[in-house]
Structure formats: C-alpha cells, structure tokens
Design goal:
- There is one protein chain.
- By secondary structure, this protein is an alpha/beta fold.
- It has a single domain, classed as Rossmann fold (3-Layer(aba) Sandwich).
- Helices cover about 35% and strands about 20% of the residues.
- The protein contains six helices and seven strands, in the order βαβββαββαβααα.
- Helix 1 packs across helix 5, helix 2 crosses helix 3 and helix 5 packs antiparallel against helix 6.
Length: about 200
C-alpha cells in the first residue's frame, strides 16, 4: 500500500449556503479527515488548468502495522458544482498518477438509511449526478465509493430538493457520529484495503 497516493474526494456544492446540506456530507467527511491529520486545504492552480477547481490537502492517513505512518493521500474537495465534479477529479487523478482503483469518492446516498454506511467499488451511480460525471470523466466506474446514507425524502418531496436541504434537527444530533464513522471508513479503505474495510463497516454488533 506504499506504491503511490490515494485520491479521496468529498463531493458537494460550493458556497456557504450549501455547506450544511445533505448533498455536502462528503465534504464534511473530508473536513474531518483534514482535522485529524492537521492538514489544511489549499488551491493548486497549476494542477487544474488556469482556474483552481478543487482545494486539496496532501497528507497520510492511519497507521500501518508497526506504527509507521499510513499511506499517502490527497484529500480533495471540488469547488465546482456537484454535477460537474468529474473534471476536477480526473485532473487530480492524472496529475498525481492515481489509478481509478485508488480513487475514493465520499458522497451522500439516498438509497441507504440515514446514518448507515456502505462501501463498494464500481456499479451504478444511482442517479447521483456527481458520480455520473466522475464516471464519465474517468472513463470508468471502477473506483471506490464511501456511501453515506441520508435516507429517502419524506412524503412526495422531490429528491433533488431533499438533498439540497440541511439535515434536520434530529439528524444533526447523530451527524457528528456519522461523519466520524465515515472518516474511519476512508482510513480503513486506504490502510487495509476495500474488502477488509467492508467486513468492518458492514458487520454490525
């Protein structure tokens, strides 16, 4: 697990008005990972053409057996809107020479109950525009997803409206735990690999 960096991307929309939205939970997880590692996000204008399209932090995650620092990781938050996330992800993957199997996308997931997590590689995007654009830009769906459950919208509320609303007061009570658990899941993926991480995350009790 030392042959090159991982690229961990937190999906969301830019701007303070979106920061607390369900759609931005991926970026909340990236903020937690940066906090844990004492890292700070900065623009890399030379990487992403003339205009920075992401803020990144280069760090290491977790601890290897024997106490050595964990794998090198590039934490990235696109500063584009969700539905055009693919360009920044592909540019960063190319710049840091990260293959798709070492790209980890952290995102909200409507098809998973609130406060539950699922990990997978590849498969469909489930109508998630950020993932769809990423698959198109990378030319493959074969990347890792840390799927953070936000649940289904109540009643007849449109899904697009639901994810662009802040978490409810009741949900916010569990939100710190959820963000922490998702950050743990990312660490497990990069240190132990996806299969071992799935066993840990998907096994309850």
């Amino acid at each position: 697990m030392t042959e090159g960096p991982w690229l961990v991307v937190g999906l969301g929309n830019p701007g303070a008005q979106y920061a607390g939205n369900r759609h931005n939970v991926g970026q909340m997880v990236l903020d937690e990972l940066a906090r844990r590692t004492g890292s700070s996000f900065g623009s890399r204008g030379g990487i992403l053409s003339r205009r920075p399209q992401a803020v990144v932090a280069e760090t290491r995650l977790g601890t290897l057996p024997g106490g050595a620092p964990g794998p090198r990781v590039v934490l990235a938050k696109p500063t584009t809107y969700m539905n055009v996330s693919g360009g920044p992800v592909a540019s960063l993957a190319q710049y840091y020479d990260v293959p798709p199997e070492r790209v980890v996308m952290v995102h909200d997931e409507l098809d998973i109950p609130y406060a539950e997590l699922r990990l997978k590689r590849g498969g469909g995007e489930g109508g998630h525009n950020g993932l769809r654009d990423t698959s198109k830009a990378l030319g493959t769906k074969d990347y890792v997803r840390v799927r953070v459950g936000v649940g289904r919208p109540p009643g007849r509320m449109d899904a697009a409206d639901f994810v662009l609303r802040d978490f409810s007061a009741a949900e916010r009570k569990d939100l710190p735990w959820l963000v922490d658990a998702a950050a743990d899941a990312v660490e497990l993926v990069v240190v132990d690999g996806l299969e071992k991480a799935q066993l840990r995350v998907h096994t309850k009790g």
